[in-house]
Amino acid sequence: MNLPFLKKKVPFLFFLFISFLIDYVIIDIAYKDNLFKRNEKKNIYKYKLYGDIDEYAYYFLDLDIGIPEQRISVILDTGSSSLSFPCSGCNDCGIHMENPYHSNYSKTSLILYCDKTKCPFNLKCVKGKCEYLQSYFEGSQISGFYFSDIVSMFSYNNEKISFRKLMGCHMHEESLFLHQQATGVLGFSLTKPNNVPTFVDLLFQNSPNLTKQFSICIAEHGGELIIGGYEEDYIVKNIKKGNNKKENEITANIINEANHNEYENDVINKKNEDSNEMKRINEEINNIIWANITRKYYYYVRVKGFKFYGTDFLDNNEFDVLIDSGSTFSHIPESVYNKLNFFLDILCIPDMNNVLDVNKRLRLTNDSFINPLLFFDDFNSALKNIIENENMCVKIVDDVQCWKYKDYLPDIYVIMSDNYKIRWKPESYLYKKESFWCKGIEKQVNNKAIFGLTFFKNKQVIFDIENYKIGFVESNCPSYPINTRPKTYNEYNKKENIYLKVSYFNLYSMFILFALILLLSIIFYLKKLFYMYYLPLQNENEETMEIRMDMK
Predict the structure, then answer these.
(1) Residue 543 lies in a domain
(2) Residues paired with 302 in a beta bridge
(3) What phi and psi values does residue 134 have, to the nearest 5 degrees?
(4) Looking at per-residue confidence, does 309 or 283 come out higher?
(5) Helix 504-534 and helix 536-551: axis angle, to 10°?
(6) What residues does the Peptidase A1 domain cover (predicted)?
């Protein structure tokens, strides 16, 4: 059969078929890529964190221990290695959010008994049980015994993770542990040789499909612990502009500092280098800055510089700093702290109506400083903005500065070992205290530098266990205020304890009032006895006179 019309349409049909095939392949690849990304996100386990820097001084999450589960709130602490909490029978333990863990209520609980002096992991045998003993940097100490049970982590976006873990049972608490609201502590550091396996190592051993990473992202109130990686959607993609021009003024001035001509050529060159570096930071703000872990079992990284308005306060020195979510504030070397605090004191104006004091600050010159600032004009501009906007500052305990607003306060740049800079913004190193923003940086103690919660805030801090690196990236961390935390079935019954129902001040006032009433009662009683025994006739005469008056 001769079909000429079909012959004419064959090239067209062939082209249509090829186009359809290409479209199908593209759609299939896109679908698989999207599916891969979805599956990749599925392997991220998110856990809500509660707490803040001012009221709680820590961030905590909820774990379930044993079968059936007993809910326990634990402080997230990357500076220690143990999981521990109070157990029933502890007479030296404080009152916390939940009732103490009761081993008899769990079918899977096993106390780690010892035969005279033999205990695993080089533990001590005390009264037939393997001793648990832990001391903390701020002076707290807890002790008790070891036991094992099933730990369950309920992710709000994924399935439950469960595994058996050796834990510490508190039989004695002191210092801060006595008064903290969270019931226990969860150490997130790594396992030392021949020591009790840590939570992190057991977590990844029992979840082989997980990427060996976890990240912490905290806001002013609450945050998230992310197991298996980090959340790309939280990362700040670019600098917010236009909403608050004043907040970006300092940054903009620093970036454009290359245009200043009043300094000598070598200084201008330094400014150009620094300005270009800051432009790079601003353009690549969504890039994660990685630093190598410098010590084997704890999360230390190397800091090469500490820049404030372009001037490096470290003077070519370096120091190792512990990245510690269990420390409330950040602790830096004393020499660096003193230099930083000197300039923050200039920006701290307690009385805006004191014209002499304000003018004295405005007349300061860069030459008058022991450590001149490379970007002095920007520092001076920040000072003027603080004065113009009446950003009053007060000082609290240990002369810590607290500003009414965080606007116009400077960024600090921390230079890591690979010369990348981490921007430490006022939103992080300041914390909200009532209606003020207070400095959360202190001098280091015992020659130990720590970047605590005031460094974590508004960043994702990513701990890459496999590659021994820690990443830092500015992020919009989710907020979970404490009043959004669900009530727990194991919650401590406050009605059982009057000391939790009233504040210390009210309790003290009640005690004083009771003592006064008791004292007055005793005085009136003694007075009555005195009149009864020593002036009986006077009483009788008074009574007789009253009767006669009534008769009249």
Answers:
(1) no
(2) 320
(3) -145, 130
(4) 309
(5) 90
(6) 59-473
State the Cα–Cα distance between residues 284 and 150, nearest whole angstrom. 43
Asked whether 373 and 383 are in contact (CB, 8 A), the reply is no
> In this structure, are 166 and 290 located in the same domain?
no
With a CB cutoff of 8 Å and minimum separation 6, the contacts of 498 are none
Residue (of 67, 73, 70, 65) closest to 47 by Cα position: 73
Which residues on neighbouring strands pair with residue 403, listed in sequence order? 393, 437
The answer to whether the predicted template modeling score (pTM) of the entire model surpasses 0.85 is no
Tell which residue, 450, 465, 466, has the closest CA to residue 301.
Answer: 450
State the Cα–Cα distance between residues 171 and 236, nearest whole angstrom.
45
pLDDT at 498: 37
CATH number of the domain bearing residue 349? 2.40.70.10
17 occurs within a structural domain: no
* Domain co-membership, 224 together with 269: no
Q: For 266-291, write each residue's pLDDT tens digit.
A: 555 555 555 555 555 444 445 899 99
298, 428 contact by CB (below 8 A): no
CA dihedral (388, 394, 400, 405) in degrees, to 10, reads -40
**Residue-level pLDDT at 17:** 55
Domain count, the chain: 3
Neighbouring C-beta atoms of residue 440, cutoff 10 Å: 21
Tell me: pLDDT of 140 over 80. no
435-491: pLDDT as tens digits: 999 999 999 988 999 999 999 999 999 999 999 999 999 999 999 999 999 887 667
- What angle separates helix 376-388 from helix 355-362, to the nearest 10 degrees? 160
Structure-token pair, residue 475: 């992020």
Q: What is the DSSP letter of 235?
A: B
Residue positions annotated with a catalytic role: 77, 324
